[in-house]
Design goal:
This protein has one domain. Helix 1 packs parallel to helix 4 and helix 3 packs antiparallel against helix 4. Helices cover 87% and strands 0% of the residues. It starts with a helix and ends with a helix. The protein is built from 5 helices and no strands. The chain is mainly α and 119 residues long. The relative contact order is 0.20.
């Protein structure tokens, strides 16, 4: 139960960090749009960056978690559900990528002209 709560809080925190990251890059995105990039390029670029960070974080966390519980996993293999762990990791990846896409969409919907003038 505590792990699930931590996972929910971590996912909400991830969405907040991704949104803040994209909002802080508004000036950079406005300058790139003025040079000739379109929204599709922004979306691909930002989602790819966030996906790389997300996969690296999930893999690092998974390796650390496996190292922490390897002894229990080896002794009680029948009581640990690998399927539910895989579903949970997949849910984290999907929610992280969804948060990245939503953050990118929210930033690109805002007027970038004022950010370009500030640059």
């Amino acid at each position: 139960m505590l792990g699930g709560l931590g996972l929910i809080l971590g996912t909400i925190g991830l969405a907040a960090v991704l949104l803040r990251n994209v909002l802080e890059r508004r000036r950079e995105l406005a300058l790139m749009r003025a040079v000739g990039f379109d929204s599709r390029h922004f979306t691909i670029m930002i989602v790819a960056e966030n996906a790389l960070l997300l996969f690296a974080g999930v893999m690092t966390g998974s390796i650390c978690a496996v190292l922490a519980i390897i002894q229990v996993f080896l002794t009680r293999h029948n009581q640990v559900s690998s399927f539910s762990l895989g579903v949970m990791l997949l849910a984290v990846l999907v929610s992280g990528l969804t948060a990245s896409i939503v953050a990118t969409w929210a930033t690109l919907r805002s007027p970038l002209l004022t950010a370009l003038k500030a640059e």
